[in-house]
């Protein structure tokens, strides 16, 4: 939910959540690429204009590479992401006092400028007692962080008390008749062209959990 912190009070950009001025409207990949595309088309960034002319598109890695080569527009886009996200994370850090913050995502991987400005914003805005022993690093998992996090969440759910009591008599979650039925329905939905199947949650229903 960090992306829905207010980043700019005077912003007119409407977030997908319906509010105005959320962090993700000005500091996520789509926002950066939108402005990079404008800069390329208007010619304010020669490097981005060349990239657009050559490949027909601009991706986060292109903006990061241009920033590292000294392109002022790209460098400012990367710096802004680091500053804005860092300022919001600092608020969270002041509340929870973490020992480690791991920065992930396409933009973090695209440029060292994002990491540098993010660190500067967090350390500057955090309480001295919070920042004193706080480590800030870039994820070593590249683009796999979200996938691994999702997998861990699934594992935690499978082995929760309510879930275990649902499937353990059958030896494995996928051996429960209800789960087998749900999986089969999902396969049929995918095969029929319905690309929005909903994952089953039968163990919570069987256990009476909310």
Describe this structure in words.
This protein has helices spanning 24-27, 29-42, 46-55, 60-68, 72-96, 106-110, 112-125, 128-131, 145-158, 161-167, 177-191, 202-207; strands at residues 100-103, 135-138. By secondary structure, it is mainly α. The protein has a two-stranded parallel ribbon. The longest helix is centred in the middle third of the chain and has 25 residues, at 72-96. Residues 197-210 have low confidence and may be disordered.
C-alpha end-to-end distance = 22 Å
Strand order in the largest sheet = 1-2
Report Rg.
22 Å
Percentage of residues in strands = under 5%
Order of helices and strands: HHHHHEHHHEHHHH
What structural class do you assign from the helix and strand content?
Answer: mainly alpha
Strand runs, count? 2
Give descriptors for this structure:
210 residues; 2 strands; mainly alpha
Please provide a brief summary of the model.
The chain has twelve helices and two strands.
Q: How would the blueprint of this fold be written?
A:
Blueprint (H helix, E strand, L loop, with lengths): L23 H4 L1 H14 L3 H10 L4 H9 L3 H25 L3 E4 L2 H5 L1 H14 L2 H4 L3 E4 L6 H14 L2 H7 L9 H15 L10 H6 L3
Parallel strand pairs: 1-2
Helix pairs in contact: 2-3, 2-5, 4-5, 5-7
């Amino acid at each position: 939910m960090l992306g829905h912190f207010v980043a700019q009070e005077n912003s007119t950009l409407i977030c997908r959540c319906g509010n105005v001025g959320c962090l993700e409207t000005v500091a996520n990949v789509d926002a950066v690429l939108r402005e990079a595309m404008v800069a390329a088309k208007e010619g304010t960034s020669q490097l981005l204009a060349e990239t657009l002319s050559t490949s027909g598109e601009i991706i986060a890695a292109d903006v990061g590479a241009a920033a590292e080569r000294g392109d002022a527009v790209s460098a400012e886009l990367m710096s802004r992401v680091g500053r804005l996200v860092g300022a919001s994370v600092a608020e969270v850090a002041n509340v929870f006092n973490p020992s480690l913050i791991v920065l992930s995502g396409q933009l973090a991987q695209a440029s060292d400028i994002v990491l540098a400005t993010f660190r500067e914003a967090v350390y500057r805005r955090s309480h001295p007692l919070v920042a004193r022993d706080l480590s800030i690093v870039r994820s070593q998992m590249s683009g796999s962080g979200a996938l691994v996090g999702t997998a861990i969440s699934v594992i935690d759910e499978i082995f929760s008390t309510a879930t275990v009591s649902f499937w353990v008599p059958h030896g494995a979650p996928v051996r429960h008749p209800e789960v087998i039925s749900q999986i089969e329905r999902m396969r049929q939905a995918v095969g029929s062209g319905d690309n929005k199947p909903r994952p089953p949650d039968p163990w919570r229903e069987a256990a009476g959990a909310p």
